[in-house]
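Bench notes, afternoon.
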Amino acid sequence: MLGERKLKKAKLEEAFDELRAQYENLIFENALNPTLLRAYDERVNHAVKFGRDPEKFLQEELQAFDDLEAKARNKENAESKLIEIRRRQLAGETFADQVIDEYRQRIEHYPKIRIHQNADLEVAKLYGAMYVLDRKYWGVLEAYLRQAFPRAGQIDRMSIEQRFWRFVATRKGRLPEALEAYRRSLAIPSTSNKERTREAQEAVKSVAFYLHDLLDVCEKASHQAQHTAGIADALEFIQNILSNFRLNDLKRR
């Protein structure tokens, strides 16, 4: 018993020493008032002097440290945010610029297909995402839908398969069919900016509608056949496209 008490006491002392070291690091890293460490030492000495339950006291001190650390981290984050805001103000950036910048970062990893030198980046990236869907996931999706809807005339499968090919290039060096109207609007000098904007919006909207419909068909298919290998990854990729391009709410009414 005596040996166990000594071991327990040694572990508690080790825990208090470790906590003290954490205080030192927190004070140094966040430039906090050094008196925080002195106050901790005084509390420990007071607890020992008056015979407080060491385990209960340790729990209280750990909670106090966690609270202090959280405040320090929040302050650090707030200061970083203020620095970033100040940087944007000095650069003449607005809140709208910040939103656009964050949006571009979300779609940056998608490839960009070449439509025209003046093509909207969002359109080029969105159809680049469809290119990846075709190359990496469509084979798995197509096989799964044919397993769920084996009869050739089943409307769900036929419609979704036929529509898919409008959004990807069916021949090398050729643009997807759904982009032709937009490409022509960019290529013809007399086309108004309003018309070009409308065609860009149509190109985006048609992809959004299709992807939502594809997810709906896959949901119906899940009642007919179990997900095969790779289906979860394919569905996640589609959902990420809708999220990253802010198309979650752009669906048929």
